[in-house]
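Give me the fold.
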Amino acid sequence: MSEVLKLNINQENSQAKVEIIAAEGLRASHEIITVLEKCKSSSEHIIDQLPDLLVIMSVDGRILKGNDAAASLMECDPEMILNLNIFSVFQAETRNIMKSRISSLLKNRDIEQLQFELPIINKNGTQIEHLWTVSLFSQISERRGPLIKILGKDISKIKEFEKKLSQIFSAIPLGIFTVDSDGKIEWPYSLFTEYLLGQDKLAGSGLEEVLFEPIWDSLDSIEKTGAGQVVDCIGGDTLWFDMAKLHFPNEVKYVRETPDGIKPCWLGITYHPIVHENTIEKLMIVLEDRTEVVEARRALEVQREIENNKIKKILEIQNCSGPLLEVTFNDFDLLFPRMKTEIDEENYEKVTRTLHAIKGIARTAGFTDIEHHVHSTEDTLLTQLSANKVNKEWLEDGFNELKDEWNELRSLCFALSGRQHGLQIKQADYMEVLHELKELRSTLEPDARVHADKILEKLGGGQFAQQILLSTLEQRLAKQLKVTMESLGKNINLVFDWKDVEVIQSEILTFSEVFVHLLNNAIDHGIESPTDRQKLGKPETGTITIKAERAEGFIHFEVIDDGKGIEKQKIIDTAIKKEILNERQISKLKNDDDILELMLLPGFSTKEKVDTISGRGIGLDSVNDAVKSLGCNKLQIRSEIGKGTKFLFDVPLTTVD
């Protein structure tokens, strides 16, 4: 083949390759264009199907592009929306606002977008609330002027919900509001919030300014730290919030202005995080008026303090021996009138000596409140004497307070001893009088019986008609037995032998306390452990029996255990060790009954280790006082080593029919 032919063939092959490459390029371009067209068509479809209005327009409102929602708003087909004016859906005032916002956007190009609410009017003339987002459309050249992109969201349902929420809020007596990430209070909030905080138009106000600044001085250091962390928790995680909220103020004193003037109140504050993906986006705060609750609680605390003080006085009385108590009574009955005379005569030197004498007697008897009160009065009086200027009115007030202290203590003494202060009548005698009146009543004619009923009612005898079976105590006592014996590892049967025996309903609590004390005493001190009982040849399970039976003129009670009995020498050793009696006094004890009665003295306990059951020294003396209050002379004790112990007392039948 010639060289010329070969050259022509090569040229034809090269041309064919070029044509093939060009054809493939055209095919690829066509596919790309097809894909782009599909993407464009898809994006157009997505835009058209958006539930929110989307418009691209010129600065004068002429629509260059709009989706189906925009066409629906303009009341035209989507193909006919071009060149319509978006401003036509606004009223004059709202149209001017929209134009003003667009103008602001054009003047300040640093603003990416503006968002605001403006209503529009639909074809039925109904006003529909919309949230508008306006921004520059910068995807194309601004050679022909800037274009504006507008998004409009129908928020009418949201507004309706907010309206309903506001109505609900207005009826709730709680302050409820949310705080955004900037620490600002949001709308809506309950109207009661404004009342509690004494301010209106709270939306947009800072939480710290509105809530914490007015109460700042009433917060302690921990609460102040917590108040500064409340807003900082927004935007953080829930773990940090849970740790920080322990320091948040939750009950604070607040002063607010009311129609009746400025009044203090107490606010309860609770904090509830609004969380999204473990991040706190907002904080809901609930305020509650706790004024009545706090005042009631404080009143209860005052009452509790009064009761605790009374209990302390009772313990001081019980710890004071009978002879010393009698001497203290006699001395105070002389010293207080004498001090009153010295104050009236303004003989203040003698007043100081009398105060000193009262203080010494109170210290000896163990009456701490009187001792401290006198000591304070004595110090102040000496200071005034050194300045030669005694305030008589202050001294008289102090004397009256001191006398009130003594009168309260004396009243408690009479109550514990079974006497009625002022009447000086023993409880047993009082019960006997009531019983005789009731016997006399039964012999009277109907008219006279009515008169006798009135007398009994005034004396408190009206309560005697209300009676209750002792058996109502069985469930409580059985439960007490179970708890106590389980804690001590003992096995005990509890037997009740008091069928149909009734007592006064008002005294059932006293009977309950007596039996609980004696039951605990028998479980702890009397009944041996199962192992010890087995060694002694006794059944592993002990027995405690509570008996009550009616006799002539009284009800006889017994609490019996089959335990180890009471060692008389141990009682004597304990009395000496606790300095309740000395050796000389012990030697004068006549018999075993006298020795056993030592257990009824205040502060006596043979148990060396104090626990939740016994060992505090206020056991049997309290029982003795309780049975005396029921009209009994005293609690009796019988015991035999190895066989058990029996507690006995007789309550006059005057307490029952």
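Residues 419-423, 609-618 have pLDDT under 50 and may be disordered.
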